[in-house]
Amino acid sequence: MLVKKIEMLKKVFFCTSIFFLSVGATKSFSQIGGGGFPASFYSKETILQSNILKISDATFEEYISGKRETKNSGAYEVGWSIPANRDLLNDGAWTTLADGSKIFKASISVPNAKALALYYQDFYLPKGVKLFLYNNNKKQILGAFDNTTTDSRIFSNQPIIGDLVHLELNVSNDVDIADIALKLNFIGAYFKGVENESVMYAEDVPLLNDPPIGATASCHVNAMCPQGNAQEEARKATLRIVITGGPGTSMGYCSGTLINNTGNQPNVTCKPLFLTASHCDSENGMSDAHFQYWQFRFNYQMDACTNGNAPTEGSSPTLTAGAKFKSRSYYPTFASTNPESSSLVQDFLLLELNGPLPSGYHLVGWNRATNLTSDPSQSIFYGFHHPSGDVKKLSLGTQISGNGTFNQNTVLSTHWKMVYDIGGTSPGSSGSGLFDSRGLLVGDLSGGATGNCPADSKKFGNDALYSKISYAWENAFDQTEFPAHAGATSRLKDHLDPLNLGLTSLGTTESDNCSDFTSVKVNQVEKLDLYVFPVPSNDGKINIQLNVDKVSDFFASIVDVSGREVKNFIFNNRSSNLKSIDLSQLTNGVYFLTLSSELGQGQYKFVITK
Fold this sequence. Notes:
8 helices, Thrombin, subunit H, mainly beta, disordered N terminus, single chain, globular, 3 domains, 610 residues, 8-stranded antiparallel sheet
């Protein structure tokens, strides 16, 4: 296959500018961005650099130093939301270029942070403005974001690796800069939980490396292993959540599942609902504003059973538009003096995701039957989850019991109890789904006892307790014990069966069936998606950087002016990638880099002058 690809590359017409196949674009899915590079990367004009805005926070420093311990209940704690409340347009530097366009640059640092995410309280980019964010070594680039990125003035970005993030606006000459809004609410500063991304983007990782990322522990099994292939739709519907309650609160990871409802039909009441655990949000929020900054990452998983290439932003997009509140079980059910053992009768939180879903996903069906233990067709059960926020993992078992409870004995049989034969769960797995033999959702994870595992995962558990959808359907306990929240906001039936069909189970549906919340992203490769530097090269070494909005294998060939191939190589399965190529053995002259992928073909001229 590689030989055929390279032969195809040789036939590409040589030209001195980039040409790529392109198609019309539609409104993009939040956070992926449109690809390309900041104008400052390739501009030959002098660009003013902003002073670095350094923000410190006593609480975050306590986490870093170990003086403040993370919580053992709720989400898997990984960061702190540092209050900022400032207009970034007042903290940067503007450069006006010769053609009248402008570049704005701002830089923000939180010393000792592992990664930084920016959360805006007022965000607006008029047409003609592009926003990029990148880390100090420019390996990680988010964007371009523009006027199609979000319909809301609330926005946030995925974490940028390192303790310094650069923000850049590229503004066309017909834009009134007074229309731009970049008012920061808080900074999400990570002190752990971004180890996988750090392998790809950190300063000390060689450019040529495509290193594997490790499992959370040897006990865990990658979701893409063959045992999970029978439930591909459930596997893909499992998302990782980044949870924050706003400025001055902790940040953490949980898991959850896109779930179907009877109204998900064209021209009815399509809603992208999402089920997780109530205990993931220890604040017991019941308003849309409470969930407006939650982030949901899709497809964060390996591409094979063994560890290999880490998922990139293109293959694993993040919805950063938050969610709306629909219903939840009251948290905690009973007062407890021990934060590690909250007593729960039920443990569900149902949200509606804001913004469009990426194309090609499924909303998993559900099963509220109470006889799973005696039904001979229910012989195997599956769990997909993100332990410690790691790439998606698989749990599988045949031993299920219907008499489980979670840290309480007042109300019996509220949870499904699973003993897994393969895999298990860990903090961060909370809220993930339990799927029956048909791949239908029957519960969400509350927690479990510690199982047998090597010492590298002392909190691993293969004995898991899942809050039952069958009990949460009516949630009788909350209806009587918490009358102020009785009704639709404390049970599932009103939202999972809005047509009141009375079904015991509902099948899985494709997200594309509901056009009113699904946006099909049409990918496009443009000139500025490829950047080769330095030009000319004075030592024969060049850097090649890609930033496109879809993962693809790029087959590359370098030829001289006679058409003779002097080198070929591959960018493996990357949407954003940076490679350094040593061509010092070549003589001085003009060369052509030619690329080919499913996104199109193209060419770039560069010069070696040693």
